[in-house]
Amino acid sequence: MEVTNKYITIKAHIDGAPKEFDFEVKDLALPLRVDLDTNVVIVKNLYVSIDPYQLNRLKSFSSSQSAINFALGVTPSEREDWAVVKPDVLLRKFNPLGLPCLTKLGFQLALLNEKLGFDDAFDNKEETDLKATLKRYFPDGINIYFDNVGVERKKQ
């Protein structure tokens, strides 16, 4: 059996903020067959997390690429619907911790509140007045503030 493997590629390494024209959608025929003695598997990607740290993976060089193995630079043409995973690649099954898979895959608010015991959490993109939101959710102040969205915040 053969499938059409759609993938998104970067045209070249990106230095600076990525723009839509830096990417390209391509198709490639992929046979869904591997030799049993190769320890290779073919995986259908249902969800892909695009996290802020991945911007450094798109650059021609970033110090994080040599510091940690999961932040290696992306070679142009390496994101796809179907992936041929070789034995030397880390492969982990996604565990949604009892939440539906369609829940946000970044920081899931229900996960933070219900499973991990945080006092509260909110989606800053849904709030218009951050100062008022912080006062409403955390009237006694905040001990730890973690913001990993990697974008500029609007001035209040």
Automatic annotation (TrEMBL):
GO terms for molecular function: oxidoreductase activity, acting on the CH-CH group of donors, NAD or NADP as acceptor. This is Oxidoreductase N-terminal domain-containing protein. SUPFAM superfamilies: GroES-like (SSF50129). The lineage of its organism: Eukaryota, Viridiplantae, Streptophyta, Embryophyta, Tracheophyta. It comes from Dipteronia dyeriana.
